[in-house]
Amino acid sequence: xxxxxTQIPELSASRNLTPFGAGEFDRQNASRPMREPQRVGxxxxxxxxxxxxxxxxxxxxxxxxxxxxxxxxxxxxxxxKNVMEQESMVGPKIPKNExxxxxxxxxxxxxxxxxxxxxxxxxxxxxxxxSYEIAGINDKYHPAAAEMLKNLPPExxxxxxxxxxxxxxxxxxxxxxxxxxSFFQDLAFNRGVGGATKFLQRxxxxxxxxxxxxxxxxxLEGLNPSEVMKNVSVExxxxxxxxxxxxxxxxxxxxxxxxxxxxxxxLFGNAPTG
Length: 274
Hints:
By secondary structure, this protein is mainly alpha-helical. The chain has two domains: about 40-170, no CATH class; about 175-274, no CATH class. The chain contains ten helices and three strands; from the N terminus they run H-H-H-H-E-E-E-H-H-H-H-H-H. The chain has helices at about 10, 45-70, 75-85, 95-110, 145-150, 155-175, 180-205, 215-220, 225-245, 255-270, and strands at about 120, 130-135, 135-140. The chain has a three-stranded antiparallel sheet with strand order 1-2-3, with helices on one face. It is globular, with a radius of gyration of 18 Å.
């Protein structure tokens, strides 16, 4: 079975890959330049509203962590504890690189209206993500956050979704070496913490138990981050094709998923090696 990641120039030289095609879930906004976050005075009315929203987002992240992957209960208990111990999400307390990477994730995932605002949209049959979604945040795996985003003014959804991406993934990404964090922030949001960990473990040849522990982190030492992330991308597409073989209704998503994986590597995969 051929791997399909040849939009990534580095991949075609080392693997037998076939080209991408445009797919139903190919995000039109993936190549947009990332906008700088707007800075406002946090003491004004909008600032107070954002502070209140941030507190709700922290609560949503905590609830959704617990619901998302029951097999990772112990890990998610720790994630929830970490979320609750963190300070407010609002303003510069989120590192700029994490926030900008999360905005890129939102732009890859989101559908936008004519004004450029993130939309709420219904999911098609076979998606397995529930009934509706906002920038990849669906009502099955992230029910509290999805409801919150749905009820926000459209012009505030992009920022709020990016902050949720950071909050939801940080207990996982903070364990990784710096060159991997933006890539795995996106992957863990897109395919869950357990899924992201298993793709990584398969790529580096350790037991794929879905737990990011000392053995997995030790195995990363001395490896080329870009090569690791390239192989993780291949592992994800192997998994996605297997799902499509088991459920033919998912075949219609493959082209879009291939583009999604390629865009992640294009944006985040060229990490420094030293």
